[in-house]
Every structure is written in structure tokens, then in C-alpha cells.
Amino acid sequence: MNKESVRIKKIKLFGDRVLEFARIYYRNKYGLAGLIILTFFIFLALFAPFIAPYTPSDTFLAEPFSPPSSKFLLGTDELGRDIFSLLIYGTWTSMTVGVLASLLTVIIGTFVGIYAGYYGGIVQSILMRLTDFFLILPALPLMIVLAAILGPSIWNIIFVISIVSWPVTARVIMSQTLSVKESSYVEASKALGAGDTYIIFRHILPNVTPLIFAYVILNIAGAILAEAGLSFLGLGDPSHISWGMMLYYADQFGALVAGIWWYILPPGLAISLLVLSFMMIGYALDEIINPRIRRR
Amino acid sequence: MEILRVENIKKWFPVRTGILSSILFGEKQFIKAVDGVSFTIDEGEVFCLVGESGCGKTTLARLIARLIEPTDGRIYYKGRDIVQMKKKEFRPLRREIQIIFQNPYEALDPRMRIYDILMEPIKLHKKHFEGDPDERIRTVMRDVKLNPDEYLWKFPHELSGGERQRVSIARSLMLYPKLLLADEPASMLDASVRSSILNLLTDLREEYNLTLLYITHDLAQAWYLCERIAVMYLGVIVELGKTDDVINSPLHPYTKALISNIPIPDPRRKTEAIEIKGEVPSPINVPPGCRFHPRCPYFMEGKCDKETPKYLDVGDGHIVACHLYE
Fold this sequence. Notes:
The complex is a heterodimer of chains A (296) and B (326).
Chain A: H1 3-27, H2 29-46, H3 48-51, H4 83-119, H5 121-136, H6 139-150, H7 154-181, H8 184-191, H9 196-232, H10 243-252, H11 255-258, H12 261-289, H13 291-294
Helix pairs in contact in A: 2-4, 2-12, 4-5, 4-7, 4-9, 4-12, 5-7, 6-7, 7-9, 9-10, 9-12, 10-12
Chain B: E1 2-14, H1 19-25, E2 30-42, E3 46-50, H2 57-64, E4 72-77, E5 80-81, H3 87-90, E6 97-100, H4 114-124, H5 133-143, H6 148-151, H7 161-173, E7 179-183, H8 191-208, E8 211-216, H9 219-225, E9 228-233, E10 236-242, H10 243-248, H11 253-260, E11 311-313, E12 319-321
Parallel strand pairs in B: 3-8, 3-9, 6-7, 7-8
Antiparallel strand pairs in B: 1-2, 1-4, 4-5, 9-10, 10-12, 11-12
């Protein structure tokens, strides 16, 4: 068997595993439902200009707060903008912030978690105290203060969300790293002369990857909620319309008091639905990846 | 010819204590896992370390494989002191000193296929490996009696305990080792699988010209496999000698007790099992004098609990540390 055939064999085996994974995932009803909802939102976000009847800058100043009609499917806001179109354009912002913030969170968390878990010592102690610190601090006020100081922009919101949420991920990754580090197969590698870098990339990282995977997805849900919360409080990026910001404007212009339900319900429902879809996918992945739960 | 010489090796693990207790009790406490062990192994020999759990056998193996650094003492491999050696200098020697672990369920990375597991030694020693890696993997798999076509692309969780232990042995054999440290490789397996692993090791020893340091808590396994036995108790060797000498005429009370407890499949033969009272003392507070004295049936007050017994050679390399023979 030569090198080429080994590579072909490996690719084939990898394909088999992906198919196997898809088959198991397909049997998970919640996971499937979550995936369908998510696909729908991704479609909305990607093709917003083609689906939405108007753009966020199209204002019909003569028709503010008009109720749903055939012209405006979900009515209009205080500037006479079509809420249905705002909703579709807002998908992109909510989703991008959620995904990027979650990725950043997990990248920082993984890096710190593996480093602290593998090398231990002072880094580990500092990380532990830092995690405790962040766990004690109420996250929302901290995010509000940070966002207010840094100023409104999409990137600042992503940064603020990650800074607040990485310690939890770091802790989970660290505990997994600690258990992998002590295993006999790492000892065997060391007995063969493997260095730290080799062990981290060949043994520790592959063994925490499933965990990372599930955490990214579950963190997206949290990040979307955090973004909505910050935007609702008026700390969002005014140049990018998001669902949270729609709620902020609705609140500012008294939609709640005046009973203008078509301004409040759609963004609220959209947030809930998207978060729900990520949660369902996350739990489905957790169930598949964690064999102890799967073989119940 | 001597391949390994261990001289007065010690490994003390510091006990983690809080700030309060370190102020109250002052001095630092240590777990004396290995506390001054010396022995030599000849090339091609099968040498057994026997002792109950917690006596420091595994720590000793990890010291020799240089997975941990000793607190004190020397280890000479082929006359070269490997304790003093720099990590870089020692790395090529790692090919020659390999270790097999006790728990086959923990010894293989669950996310690697058998092919990748066996490829690892070659990857780590690319410069020193000659020949076709794939061919080598297949040969070694056949050597450990596993069919390469069947097992090569499996994951460890698809294998039984015995098969995993064979893969584990195969990995240690990949780079033609000289000294194999086997840390209770058969103790977590079923009795039937255990004997097949023992037989496999015996075969491999001939094929590969191995020197074997076999660690076990089971004197019966040592009896079957080894040429010389060292009995360990609480971090020290209490008796050492040729297997027949130690089994047939044990000197140390602890060895006597262990041997009297080997079951013999002969109903006519009556043996009286000597019972040792009490538990193994904590390696943090090692009893003074002879470490075995609190449990010894021949305890002599004023002697055993005061003086540490010296090693006494009773002939033919049979060494014992006990006041009874002075």
C-alpha cells in the first residue's frame, strides 16, 4: 500500500463518517426541526435584497404606523418603513453578530482552556480566579458598560459579547484538557519522545473538538440574545438594522403603549425562533457527540 | 551483560497542603512513592517487580521511561546515566525503552484509527526510520496476532480489551525496542485473555530479543514469566532473587505471606495461607525501622521498629532486607 492509496482510503473513511453522522442527525427530530428553521433564516439573510419588497432606506413618511395591509405586509414604523423588509434585512445583522461573537468566544476559550489545562501552574490559577470573577459579575450590566464606553459598532458588540462569555468555555475546555492530559495514550506519546506541541495538536485538540463544536452552536444562541439586548438598550450599531434595534425604536416611539403590535411581535418572534433553532441544533449535536446520552 | 542499572532511585511527590496546615505543621510532607530502589537487569532477561497496589511499581516504571524525573538517584541504560542526560540527548534512546500501560481502555487515543496509532512512533522518529512504514505496521500487527486487513482502519472503541492491549504492544514494538517496561499489561483482562497476552509477550521476547521489566501484583504471573523477581513493599525492595529461589524458599515474611496465598490447583496439597494483618501504611508516614514491622508476624520489638534492615546476600544473588537473617 503506497501513500496515495492510504490517502484515498482515509478520504473514503472520512466520507463514511460524515454520512453516518448525517444519518444519526436525521433521526434526531429536534435537531432536524432546528436545522430547517435555521436554513430558512440563512436563506433570508443571504437573499434579503431579492426577497424584501423595500429597503431599510425606503421611507413612506406619509404613512407612519400603518397596520398590516397588502402594500405593507407587516405594517410600517414611525418613519413609514416597511417592517417586513426591516425584519428580513435585520436577519443578517443578528446572525452575523451571533456567529462571529460565538466563534471569537470559543477561540479565546479554547486557547486559554488548553493552555491552562496543559501547562497548569500560575496560568491555571489565574484563569480559575478570572472565571469565578466573571461568573459572579452580572454579565448584562458589564456588557452595557463596556458597549457604552466603546461606542456603537457591530465589531464592538461582537467584542463585548466574547469578552464576557469566554471564561465559561475556557473552563469546560480546561477540564477536558486535564483529563486527556493524564491519559495513558498521552503518556505513551511522551514515552516516544513527543513534544508539547505535538501532543496538543494530535491528541488534546482532536479530543476537545466535539466539545468545541457543540459549544460554538450553543453560544450563538446566547450571543444573538445578547446582541438583541444591547441593541434594545440603544447600544446597537445604527448603520446596521437588527431585530433588537427594531424593538428599541418600537419602545422609543411608544409602540407598546399605543398597542402597535405589528411593530413589536415580528422582531420578538424572529429572535425567539432563531435562538430556538440554534438551541435545538446545539442539543442535538451534544446528544450525538456524547455517546453516553445517545445510547440511552 | 547488564542493560539497566537502577541505583538508589527515589521519587517523592510533594503533598498539596493548605496555607494553614503548612504554618501549623511547618515542614512539607511528601508521598514517598519510591524510596531508594536499586537493581540491575541483564540483557535479554525477564525481570519482575511484584508488590501490592500503591507500593510504587508504576512510579518506578515511569521513572525508567523518564516520564517523570526522580527526586534522587541514578538510572543507567547501557552504562549511560539517563537521569543526567538532556532531553534532546535522551530522545533517540526513547525508541529503545518502551512502555506498555495497565489499562487498555485508556492507552489508545479514542479519536485515532489503529493505522494512525501505529504510525505515531514512525512519525515521531522519521529520521531514524528506514523502510516502508505501511509494511512495518502490517508486520507488527501480524506479530501481535492481529489481522491487519481487519483491524487497520478500526477505531479503538470497536476493539475488545485484549485486542486493544495487543495494539498497545504493537505500538511499543514499532521501532524495535530493546527494553520493554510492561506495567501490569494483563491485570485488567479476563483470565483467558490474560494468558494469551502472557504467551504473546513470551513469543515476542524471543522474536525481538527483548529485555522485559514486568510489573505485576500477581506472583503467579511473575512465576510463570520471569527469571528474577524483586518484591516491593511501600517504595522499597524487600527481597530479590532468582524466581525459583524466591518462590521455593522465600525469606522475607512479606514474601512468605504473598507466596502462601498463591492458589495451587491441587486439592491434596494443603497450604496454610499466612494472613497479613492490617492495611498498607500511608506512604506519607512511613513506619520507622523496617517498613513492614507493623504487620509482621515475626516483629521483634526494639529492633524492627528502630533499625532499618540492611540488604543481606544469602547466596546466588538472593537478597533480603530483614532482621531475622542478620
